[in-house]
Amino acid sequence: MKGYRVIRKGGWDTHGLPVELEIEKELGFTSKREIEEYGIAEFNQRCRESVFRYVKDWEVMTDRIGYWVDMDDPYVTLENDYIETGWWILKQFWDRGLLYQDRRGTPHCPRCVSSLSSHEVALGYRENTPDPSVFIKFEATTLVGRRSAGSADVSAGLDNDAVDAARQHRFGDADPDICEELTERNLLYHQGIYRHTYPFCWRCDTPLLYYAKTSWYIRTTAVKDRLVSANSDINWYPDHIREGRFGEWLRNNVDWAISRERYWGTPIRCGSATPISTTCVGSVADLVALSCAAAADIDLHRPYVDDITWRCASDNCHGTMRRIPEVMDAWFDSGMMPYAQWHYPFENIEIDHDGRLPADYICEAVDQTRGWFYSLHALSTLLNDDVAYRNVICLGLILDGRGRKMSKRLGNVVDPMSVLDAHGRRRPPLVPVHRITSR
């Protein structure tokens, strides 16, 4: 309306655990073992098919609300071109020392059997969560510092309670068994309940556990100061979010855990033959050159991309390079959208200077300050040392009758079509037409 040519490109976020969980539910699966027995190829094919089930419903709704968007040529995160841009981005980080593997305490969902990033954890905190409070009796040590037999028995017994707990599926299921055993052995001094704030998996509602495990990280802390200063260049509505919710998040930034031990997602295209020999592949052409495979003709998802191997060129190795099994955090897919939707830099190299970057504005709800707003801001800062968007319109959330955020998981979502039928755009009333005849 002001003379600008606005690109109204639609898009489909198609990867991630929400899709996997829906297919698991349809198949009656409750574990990753069942997925692998069923077959990763078959499982991922069902994931691929499921993400387009509701395309027509979405198109009808956008038309009903007058939302102007090009749905004839959308970006789709599962397409090879989109995935290839993701590989290129990771290669840029790898070459600059910003992509690394480390073993550290990581928030882990025992239901999804995968790590979560810090911004995913922030989406699932709950206040007033009840947990057991247990005080255990130990025998005092002697004065030479030697542990008494009774104390040793306690340690051995608790190590075996740990084994039983690991066999339990959900967090807390083993608590009654542990308390019962401690009581029978006269080792329970006091038992109670305390309430505190605790993180839950934002996808499946399972309480998280902190495991020491190996994951892949992007070193966002290397540009922490720039993340903060670039935020000052963004115009926020309401403006208190800039230094409040979003600013506080940036000032407490930690490295981004991007690897997920799952199936339906952008594969991390790093090959490894030994712990010290790792190759990061930045394009399909690189993969073809290394492996002599016709990779351009295959689906780049698991399990097909897993079958492409090559000989390690290291003088100390000469083993077979195989892809690491993890896939990317789906928030990484979302954050690379400004580049991947154009298959940059393999095509549309001009987006750097033709006005498509950065975006003039973005509009999402307040929960995206630690989701899409963050992933866009982090990747743009790392890649271009610039903002991803100049203006933000940050919306509130429509709550249900109990004050909860509407969620498909909770089943408290209001069907938008019923609201539109009752309160939205209406067709004009029919006007009776009188036939006029002449004699």
Automatic annotation (TrEMBL):
Pfam families: tRNA-synt_1. Residues 1-424 form the Aminoacyl-tRNA synthetase class Ia domain. CDD domains: IleRS_core. It catalyses: tRNA(Ile) + L-isoleucine + ATP = L-isoleucyl-tRNA(Ile) + AMP + diphosphate. SUPFAM superfamilies: Nucleotidylyl transferase. InterPro entries: aa-tRNA-synth_Ia, Ile-tRNA-ligase, Ile-tRNA-ligase_type2, Rossmann-like_a/b/a_fold. The keyword Phosphoprotein does not apply. The keyword Protein biosynthesis applies. One of its GO terms (biological process) is isoleucyl-tRNA aminoacylation. GO terms for molecular function: ATP binding; isoleucine-tRNA ligase activity; metal ion binding. Keywords: Aminoacyl-tRNA synthetase, ATP-binding, Cytoplasm, Ligase, Metal-binding, Nucleotide-binding, Protein biosynthesis, Zinc. PANTHER family: ISOLEUCINE--TRNA LIGASE, CYTOPLASMIC, SOLEUCYL-TRNA SYNTHETASE. This is Isoleucyl-tRNA synthetase.
